[in-house]
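We treat protein structure as text, and this decision shapes the records that our systems exchange. Because each token names a local backbone shape, the row as a whole describes the fold. An entry from our holdings is shown next, in its original layout:
>
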Amino acid sequence: MFNNATVLVTGGTGSFGHTFVPMLLEKYNPEKVIIFSRDEMKQWDMAKKFLNDPRVRFFIGDVRDRERVYRALDGVDYVVHAAATKIVPTAEYNPFECIKTNVVGAMNLIDACIDKGVKKVVALSTDKASSPVNLYGATKLTSDKLFVAGNSYAGSHQTRFSVVRYGNVMGSRGSVIPFFMSIRGEGKLPITDPRMTRFMISLEQGVELVWHAFNDMEGGEVYVKKIPSMKVTDVAKTIAPDAEHEIIGIRPGEKLHEQMISAEDSFYTYEYPEHFKILPAIHNWDKDINRIKDGRKVPEGFVYASDNNCEWMGEDQLGEWIDLNKSKIGSI
């Protein structure tokens, strides 16, 4: 699909883009990969990694800027939408800004992709979009709904939209693993709540889920990767076994356990060997055999949450992953 194609990544200088672009260039042979983002310094730093690859292009712009999004999409075949305001406390204290990027930005991109004839779009979501309790999650749920409905909104146009949803990305910039590693020498690690659990996924697994979505999608599906859970206290023990745990309380907008499929989603959800697929509730698309394929319907009331997960990551597994990825943890 991607051979000789032009692929654009919104928010492409973030953690996902730093992994997606090299993997795409290695596995496929796209004509162009366009990094669309608003921070020229991040683009400057990222460009140094691809100095000898003419396929990689950089385009300054913001998904909030409708006209700039239209210009960026000239000749683009496929889009990965990774741009977002995603830090939970930041969104809580700057709600207008979060909505402009996560909701208005999604609307701009959907309109532009349809009008410019983009073939397929995959938008990145988050576990916080399922039964959201914070503004970030609420805006991402809204964004998910916009991309699902975009398949109907496209009318006679051929553009198709789908969503991928996954949990805490291990080692990404701003996540708990690099934070704990940066302060482990102090002998004390802050823990919001000793019961807290999180889903754990690597960036490489996230990229592979996006590729699967592009290959499998008919339009409107939400793909949910099956990934292990881990207690935050176990993450802390792995990184600093002798450190004291200081309980500081849950931050504004934070959940005790994350969720990726709610009981309400269960009526439209199908299970596959490595993922789940939430089908659209509109237009009876959840009964479309082309979208269901070989999926098995989950039981009514099924909930996929980090505390009821059947797969758990142990301290040894996380320790092995950290040893293999020390050089890049927290750098992207």
User: Anything to note?
Assistant: The domain at 6-167+203-225+260-305 is CATH 3.40.50.720 (Rossmann fold). The mean pLDDT is 95.
